[in-house]
Amino acid sequence: MNDTHAAIEQAIEELREDALQLLQDLVRIPSLEGEERACQDLVAARYADLGLEIDYWTPNDEELAAHPAYVPTGFTYENRPNVVGTWHGTGGGRSLKLNGHVDVVPIGPPETWQYPPFGGELVDGRVYGRGAADMKGGCVVNWLCVAALQRAGLRLRGDVLLESVVDEEGGGNGTLAAVLRGYTADGCIFTEPTGLEEISVSNRGAQYFRITVNGQEGGTEYKHQLVNPIAVGMRIFEAVEDYSLMRESQVSHPLYKGIHDTLVPTGICKFHCGEWPSTIASQAVLEGTIECLPGEDIHAIKRDFRRYIEEVARRDPWLRENPPKMEWFGLWFDAAEIAPDHALVRCIQDAAEATIGTRPKPRGGGGCDLRLPVLYGDTPSVLYGPAGAMIHSTDEFIDLEEVLRCAKVIARVTLDWCGQAEG
Ligand SMILES: [Zn+2]
Questions:
Q1: Per-residue b/e over 15-49, b at no fewer than 16 CB within 10 Å?
Q2: Is the CB of residue 268 less than 8 Å from the CB of residue 287?
Q3: Catalytic residue among 168, 198, 334, 402
């Protein structure tokens, strides 16, 4: 380790208490979907403390809705600002964007939590609370990286952009808004909680669907003359299960070998039918998701799936006469990937090896915002950030030590990627 690297690591150690304070402050703001503003105000203030050029803006609903990558969430972005803080380099280096999202998913029943869900309590080195791991820990890493490089007295050649977005959990329109605002870079790291052993270099594509089937309404006493839409819906459910197995047998991708049970999650997870225990309903509504791997086109998969459901209906006497209604709705996204040996991936691998002694492996990821800068911002991107536990579950937490370890790696990546300025 040379003097520069030692100075960066020392600066991160010296900033330990500040990092903890920021993490607890962020977790203590319940930044659920639509309520991110107070968190973004705090982030903007901390970026301003670092002397960054601050851009604080409200994503434009109409502009977003007109973009092909827009996710029709039904939300407005009014009162949901994005923040970008730019640390300008002296010129001649590569730029790097560090992305974090401040929105969090709901807490579920509060009585199931051992620690207050928005308490930010520190217990045995772990900070507990909704969003601690996904991904306020990562937001702290992004801040800490610039804070430590500055504290070590360094100037960089390339620009560093700290990008704090809303609505990641809703599907990514916050990151899309940042891309539309022109925030592209030579590389982007989403400090999502991948853990430090793996670098996520892709995301799967996905689309939610809804299938409505008809039955014959009437009292249970006539059940043998009527068609119960539950039974019809079950046939659709089984058919989708078969489709899922068929897809599994057809697809493969080196980045997705052996990491999950399923390569392309596909299935129905919501089934709604009936309003009265003794009345057969007129319809059943089924909702589910289909996904695809990088290299596949989600739009082509959608067409294939629709044809399949139409074929299933043609072979079913009731469905042939009463065709199911099929709709796409809500969450969808493209698949995307970058080369697993991309310079940004190697830069992170080298920095991690030198800093924490492990060489993280590139792997395939699920749904995330990676696709947006890759496909629409010409910005090679990865996910690499501090692991936590119980993500989206009860008693979510992150280890402060993991946040500091990650910041040491990312600070070194930033120095190597952007280049140290002379003098
Ligand atoms: Zn996340």
A1: beeebbebbbbbbbbbbbbbbbbebbebbbebbee
A2: yes
A3: 168
Q: Which domains does the chain have, with CATH numbers?
A: 3-203+335-418 (3.40.630.10), 205-333 (3.30.70.360)
Q: Which of the following is catalytic: 9, 36, 55, 103?
A: 103
**Please, are residues 355 and 248 in contact by the beta-carbon 8 Å criterion?**
no
Q: Which two tokens stand for residue 309?
A: 């459901």
CA distance 259 to 138: 23
Query: pLDDT tens-digit profile of 352-395?
Result: 999 999 999 999 999 999 999 999 999 999 999 999 999 999 99
Examine the residue annotation and report whether 103 is marked as an active-site residue of this protein: yes
Work out whether the CA dihedral 125, 131, 136, 137 comes out positive or negative: positive
> CA torsion angle for 133, 134, 139, 145 (degrees, to 10)?
60
The pLDDT > 70 percentage for the chain reads: 100
Active site residue 167: no
Q: What's the mean pLDDT in 292-314?
A: 97
The residues that bridge with 210 in the sheet, in sequence order, are 287, 327
CA 192 to centroid of ligand 1, rounded, Å:
5
Residue 131 Cα to ligand 1 midpoint, Å, equals 8
pTM above 0.90, yes or no: yes
Ligand 1 mean position, distance from CA 65 (Å): 22
Give the pLDDT confidence score for residue 75 in this predicted structure.
86
Rounded distance from Cα 310 to ligand 1 centre (Å) = 36
What residues have a C-beta under 5 A from ligand 1, the ion? 134-135, 192
Cα–ligand 1 centroid distance for 232 (angstroms): 37
pLDDT in tens, 36-80: 999 999 999 999 999 999 999 999 999 999 999 999 988 899 999
Q: What is the pLDDT of residue 178?
A: 98
In the predicted model, what is the mean pLDDT of the chain? 96
